[in-house]
Amino acid sequence: MLGEGIIKGMLETAKNFAGSFVSEERLTTVEYPEQRIPTAENARVFPFLVYDGPDWQAGLRCVACQICEKECPPKCIYIEKSKDKKPDFVGKPQIYPAKFDIDISVCMSCQICVEVCPFEAIKMDTQFELATDDRFGGLLMDRQQLAKSNEYYHSIHPTEATEVDARLAQEKVAAEAKAKAAAQAAAAKAAAAKAETPATGGH
Amino acid sequence: MAATPISVTIDQIFILFRDWLDHFLPVAVRPFAAVVLGVIAIACVFPGLFALTTVFERKGLGRMQNRLGPNRVGPFGFFQPIADGIKALTKEDVIPFRADAVVHFIAPLVLVVAVFMGFAVLPMGRNMVLVDMDSGLLFFFAMGASTELSVFMAGWSSRNKYSILGAMRAVGQMISYEVPLLLSSVSVVMIAGSLSLTKIVEAQNHYTGIFPHWYVFTPWGFAAFLMFSIAATAETNRSPFDLPEGESELVAGYFTEYSGFKFALFFLGEYLGMFSISGLGATLFLGGWSAPLSFLNVIPSWIWFFSKVMAAIFIFIWMRGTLPRLRQDQLMNFAWKFVLPFTLLNLVVTALWRFMGEGWARWVVCTAILALAYVLMGRTGMHRKKFGPRSYRYAE
Predict the structure, then answer these.
(1) For chain A, which ranges sit under pLDDT 70?
(2) pTM value surpassing 0.90
(3) CA–CA separation, B62 vs B78, rounded Å?
(4) Do B321 and A13 touch (CB under 8 A)?
(5) How far is Cα A137 from Cα B364, in angstroms, rounded to an integer?
């Protein structure tokens, strides 16, 4: 009969109307600033710079090799190399970025900088609440704003950060072994030279 | 004064207040001042009701879609209309470069004024009618019809294809549904024998036992009420007849080119139209300000009137939350092939009811005729066209 469908539909909406007051699981709305859904582990927004240890300036992993700057498709990274050097995580003296700016109004979150970085120094952040009333200065992140600790990296991407740590530890062991071997070789060479010296001296 | 019971005092509180304010003035200006006070009351109450309705509508629609609706401004979001009002007032008022500026400016004013005029003849409580016109119903429809003018003014002056499309649709729709709207009220006039809305309410304000003699409780009255509701929904451009606005295809239709407070005026006009047509529906079929059960008459008459109006508004919102928009051809088919013939038949049935006299026979005969006609017309006229599975020539 005419109008049957309308009544059926009206009952359906009435059920929804009444149900939304009774059952909590009907209302799927998350009231955002107060309630939040935790971000997914693979979420990525803009890059940040990882540092080890307590001091961000001393622990910055970046060695200002500028690979990311060159690879960045929208060219949002700007790096200035330092004149002096500081020791990196294995103790080798390296130059560091005297200036490292990312313009997040230009960045397209492609993650290419992360993929090309040979030093595990740049990673993707999950922080998305970056709204500002200053569209130029407010969206240009400098070195200090970008530096975030390795612990923070662990908190946002635990799996990835553990892998990175393992890889770095391996590199460090390898570097130490190499250094040891080099030291041993040097020592052996020195010893050999020492042993040889009297002989030569004998001639 | 001491003899009147408290319920009567509360029932007449607004009239008494008006007369009290009036007696400070010189006798010569009293009748004029009384009218002005009434106008002020109407001009305050209905926009206030509009503000309340917008927030209730948004919250109710939200609940029907399992959302929360606005809940940020003030307690439970009830100050939302204030925020909306400030927003509308502070927005830039854009007038399109090629638009007919004068007509573009006047259109929203014409709409709001025409809609407000309708309230003048609605009895909102015992003795609470601004102008007790002998032909109140006629006046109401005349004013209701002039809203079409403003709609077309708005659409035409905007010089925008969406506006003119929306305006054409609106005028076509409003004229098509104006006819059944009028004809369904004519059956009430036939029984009540008067065009005065106060007389129509008086005619329904009797009780058998505790049950009222509302026209909706008679076969012809029920049928007329149904058709009146359909036509009223179409008249006020509400879903499922909201083609003139058609947010999804016409970007607000005839008021596409309006911004800021003029947009708000169109919005106000639409809601005031809903209130006035609901008020008229309540007056014609639901006994106006009379109580639904005789012993409930201790509750003031204006409370009954406004609760009937708000109940109608709730039905409007409920339908909006349920039904999809009609297509233009469906809309016209429905008006001319179903609603109009049915209201015409209902006029005959009403006459039959009038001349069959008291007794159970007229109940049986009238109900049978109307039910049969409803089923048959629904079957033959409104059956869905059968389309086969769609075939695509190029895309697959």
Answers:
(1) 89, 196-203
(2) no
(3) 14
(4) yes
(5) 82
